[in-house]
Design brief:
Length: 385
């Protein structure tokens, strides 16, 4: 009979202890898999949202400001030496060293619509970029496709009495409402959006831009370096990174990650102690069996291999079960921690890592019991017969 046959037969005879060992080690592995996968999925989800929703870099004209206040009384402020942003400078954004991290560049120009009864701000945008940048926009009607098409904010449409397809005269030129935004709860609700070139022509701002929103692929990219590089290309503009909310959430996730690793280490320690105690008890119960093995010529290395083979089988079972339970636990945790469960893929490296971790812990916890069994005196063991 081969050594692995002896190990397998022994596990079959002791099914209760086999289940106990597997569960003890499985809980530790499952906790590591669940926590690591949950944290990684949340980090990727935040990175995806940062890439997909909204701008994370704002470029505005540079100006000097003077605050008018004295004795606790504020009289407002005064801006002077305001510099326009050149549209030629906007094109330079795509030439920075980290240009591969730039996903969307959305320039804007501003004007004012005036009628005898109402006023509203007009924003010229490139709808091909703006509609991708602001994925939360929901348009009733159609996206603007012609140069005289308008996209009207929810509040502006109500205030001006505009419907889809309605005409609107701006500075003596007729436009048509192609679509109306559903309420966003932001300043976009009170704006009139039209194509950028048409707005520049209408308000005599050819080649000039009032603001630029930039969306960067910034899961791991250096935002501060991108801001610095854009600033060098556009010295007449003020470049600001809008990442406080994302950075705060990522910091919270890093704290949760450190906490989860500490909890995982504690659970794994408990699991290894369960394996150690159970294997020691198994060795003590098998004194006569081990004595017979020694008496019939088994070497110390053979006895150690039997014990360690048993531990390897248990550890493999615990690793596979721990990975599967950990993935199921991840889905439960994500459903509790988020409104919408983010998509997460099954990572083969995590599966291999879970099994490897289980085997290493199982063998490490079983090494001393296996050594103790191999050093057992055959004559002392046979006296128990």
């Amino acid at each position: 009979m081969k050594l692995h046959d002896i190990a397998i037969n022994n596990l079959r005879r002791r099914k209760g202890k086999l289940v106990f060992l597997v569960i003890g080690l499985m809980v530790g592995v499952a906790s590591v898999v669940a926590l690591v996968t949950t944290v990684r999925t949340l980090q990727e989800d935040i990175a995806h949202k940062m890439e997909e929703f909204g701008a994370n870099i704002i470029i505005t004209p540079r100006s000097e400001g003077l605050s008018l206040a004295y004795g606790g009384l504020s009289l407002g402020g005064l801006s002077f030496d305001v510099r326009e942003i050149s549209q030629d400078d906007v094109a330079k954004i795509k030439t920075i060293a980290n240009s591969a991290n730039i996903r969307i560049v959305s320039p804007k120009v501003f004007g004012v619509y005036e009628s005898p009864e109402h006023k509203a701000m007009v924003v010229g945008v490139d709808f091909n970029e703006e509609l991708v940048l602001k994925k939360w926009w929901k348009v009733n009607g159609k996206d603007p496709s012609y140069e005289n098409d308008l996209l009207v904010g929810h509040d502006a449409a109500e205030r001006l009495g505009l419907k889809i397809g309605a005409p609107l005269d701006i500075k003596g030129e007729r436009f048509k409402v192609a679509g109306i935004l559903e309420a966003t709860g932001s300043q976009d609700d009170s704006l009139l959006f039209m194509w950028l070139p048409k707005t520049q022509e209408l308000f005599e701002k050819q080649g000039k831009v009032g603001m630029v929103e930039v969306a960067a692929l910034c899961k791991n990219c250096p935002i501060s370096e991108i801001v610095s590089q854009i600033g060098e290309k556009m010295p007449s503009a003020k470049v600001t990174a809008v990442q406080q909310v994302v950075a705060g959430r990522m910091d919270a996730l890093h704290s949760f990650e450190r906490f989860s690793l500490g909890i995982s280490a504690l659970v794994l320690l408990v699991g290894s102690m369960v394996v150690f105690v159970t294997m020691m008890a198994s060795v003590n119960e098998r004194t006569r069996e081990i004595g017979i093995f020694s008496a019939i010529g088994f070497r110390r290395s053979h006895i150690m291999k039997i014990i360690l083979l048993e531990a390897s089988v248990v550890s493999l079972m615990a690793g596979v079960a721990g990975y599967l339970v950990g993935i199921l636990t991840t889905r439960v945790l994500l459903s509790v921690m988020t409104d919408q469960v983010p998509h997460f893929s099954l990572d083969p490296l995590v599966a291999v890592g879970a099994i490897f971790l289980a085997v290493v812990i199982g063998l490490a916890a079983s090494f001393y019991p296996a050594t103790a069994a191999s050093r057992m005196d055959p004559s002392e063991a046979l006296r128990t017969l």
